[in-house]
Amino acid sequence: MFMTAGRIKINGKPALKLYMHEFDRKDEDFLDKLGIDQQDEEMEDARYILVHSQDDFLALRETIFQSYDLVSEKGPIVTLKRKEED
User: DSSP H helical segments within the chain, as ranges?
Assistant: First the structure.
């Protein structure tokens, strides 16, 4: 699974569109609990959440890293691995 993000404006205010890509069934409940449940029509294999503050982003990222290890971070692409995997 990997994560990407892009900045957008909603009603003139900045927001972050945080995507999770290439997740599987084991990840779906976790993503649902975090509110990462919106589907983008242009990206079939991705879900996203709109994040409106840096504090919200940092809290979300911390929660993700409690269950997933950071495999790599290259520019806007963060590759993750479930902690229970070998």
Answer: 25-34, 54-67
pLDDT 10s per residue in the chain (86 long)? Answer: 999 999 999 999 999 999 999 999 999 999 999 999 999 888 888 999 999 999 999 999 999 999 999 999 998 899 999 998 55
- The CA radius of gyration of the chain, in Å to the nearest whole number, is 13
Q: How far is CA 5 from CA 12, 69, 76, in A?
A: 18, 18, 7
Query: What is the C-alpha to C-alpha distance for residues 7 and 40, in angstroms, rounded to an integer?
Result: 15
Enter the tokens of residue 7: 């900045």
Domain ranges of the chain: 2-82
Distances (CA, A) of 13 to 9, 42, 79: 5, 23, 28
What letters, b where the CB count within 10 A reaches 16 and e where it falls short, cover 67-81?
A: ebeeeeeeeeebbbe
